[in-house]
Amino acid sequence: MTGHIYKICSAAEWRDAEAAGAYRGSAVDHRDGFIHFSTAEQAGETAARYFAGQADLVLVAVDVAALGDALRWEPSRGGALFPHLYAELPLAAVTRVAPLPLVDGRHVFPPVP
């Protein structure tokens, strides 16, 4: 599969990932046993549902082809398929990290690749 998937996380979590050389997931990811991602179409709802009102977030764009077999598409909300990574996220797979500002209580998404 080609294209991009997206991870929303705090800027602090992302700085830690850069220092460590890989993103190992949020507390929720650790609890669930995989790193949660969204497609471009799903990211807005993910932000609204799980990150409402949170400032200082980033949107991490990841090249699907760089993840290999550790990436699985699994049903979630109402049967929609969501990308889940059963490994740490190598920084080499990341194509862009952009701020996800909060304006009037809603996250403003940058153009996505």
From TrEMBL:
Pfam families (alphabetical): DUF952 (PF06108)
SUPFAM superfamilies from the UniProt entry: ADP-ribosylation
InterPro entries: DUF952
Name of the protein in question: Uncharacterized protein (DUF952 family)
